[in-house]
Design brief:
It is a single chain. The protein has 13 helices and ten strands. It is α/β, with parallel strands linked by helices and 351 residues long. The protein folds into two domains: 227 residues, Rossmann fold, CATH 3.40.50.150; 83 residues, DNA polymerase, domain 1 (Orthogonal Bundle). Strands 3-4-2-1-5-6-10-9 form an eight-stranded mixed beta sheet, with helices on both faces. Strands 7-8 form a two-stranded antiparallel sheet. Strand 7 and strand 8 form a beta hairpin. Helix 7 crosses helix 10, helix 8 packs across helix 9 and helix 11 runs parallel beside helix 12. Bound molecules: S-adenosylmethionine (SAM). S-adenosylmethionine binds next to helix 2 and strand 2.
Amino acid sequence: MTDNLHIPVMLGESISNLEVLILRHLDLKTKLPSKVWQVFDGTLGGGGYTIAIIALFQKYKQNYQLYACDLDSVAIDRVGLRLQEELGFCKKTKDIPGFITKHQLDFGLKSKLVQEVCLIQGNFADVVNQFLDGSMDYLILDLGFSSNQLELDHRGLSYLQESDSLDLRYDQDSRVEPLWLKLKHIKGHQELTKVLFNSSGEKLSPRIAGRIIEARGRGTTLETVADLVAVVTDSIPKIMYKNRYGILSRVWQALRIWVNGEFEALEAFLPISQDKLVVGGRLAIVSFHSLEDKIVAKNFRLVSQGQEIDDYGNKEFDFKHLTARALLPLEAEIEANARSRSATMRTLERV
Ligand SMILES: C[S@@+](CC[C@H](N)C(=O)[O-])C[C@H]1O[C@@H](n2cnc3c(N)ncnc32)[C@H](O)[C@@H]1O
C-alpha cells in the first residue's frame, strides 16, 4: 500500500460543486453527442480530491478528462501508484509539451467511456496558462501543503522536526532556492522583517529578523530546523516565552509562503483560470490563510460585479460569486480533522 497520511479537507463541498453541474447536465436530457467533462485539480496532494472526482464520474457514467498537477513530484508518484493500486490501470501514453507528465492514465480502455487522467508536475498557474484550453467545466485548488509533505517527506515544513534540512520547498526539483539558501541571500533586516510580518502579522518580526541577520553575520549555520528554532526562540522575550509555539508556527508559515511564492501563484492563477471556464463552469478555492482567502474574495467580488454595459444600459455579468460568505467546514469535520479548522472555501460560476 502507498503511504498516504493526508485527509482531504472540505472534500464533500468540493465534490458537490461538480455534482451540481453533472446533475444539471443530466436534467437537460439532451440528445447531444455525449459530453466529455474537462476538470482540473491544481493541487493533487495526496490525491483525495482527484480520486473522489474519478469516483463521481464513474457513479454517473460520464466521460471525462481530468488534469491534476502538483509542484511536488513525490506527491505525483505517490498518487500515480495509488491510482494503479485502487483503480487497476495506469499507462503513460504521451507527454505534455513543456511539462513533465508523470502519469497519463486511461481507464476507458475497457469501457466505451472516455476516462482520462493526466498527472502533471508544475505550478498550477503555469499548467492552466500553457496547457488548458477554454473548455474547462471545473477547476479546484486546495492550497498549502499536505500531511504527507509535513509528516513523511522531511522538508523542514514543521518546526518540530528538528533534524530536517531547512528546505521548505514543495518542488524539490526546481531552481527555487531552499530556505537556508534564501536566508543566506536575503539583503537585510528590512527585507526579512517584511517577509515575516506581511504574511503572519507576527509582532516580533523585526526582532526575529534582526536575530537571524545577526546570526548570519556571526557565521552561525542555519541549515537545519533546529538551527532556526534556536535563533527564533532566543529572540522571544521571557515574558512571551509561553507563546513560543504560536510564534514559531507563524514564523514557519510566513517562511513557507515566501519560499514557495504561494500568494504570487494564487494571484497569477485567478484571472487565467477564469478565462478557461465554459459558461456554467465553476472555479473553487479552499484556503487555509486569511490573506489567501482575502485575495480570492476580493478577486471573486471584482469579477462578479459586472464590468460591461449592454445596449440597454444594463450591467453584463460574466461571473456569479456563489459564496459571498465563505463556506466553512462543518463542526464534525473540524472534530475529526483538526487541520480543517482554518479552511474556507469560495466558488465562482461563469454565467
Ligand atoms: C492541501 S494539499 C492538497 C490535498 C489534496 N486536495 C488531497 O485531497 O489530497 C496542497 C498541495 O498543493 C501543492 N501546491 C502548493 N502550491 C502549488 C502550486 N503553486 N502549484 C501546484 N501545486 C501546488 C502542494 O505541493 C501540496 O501537495
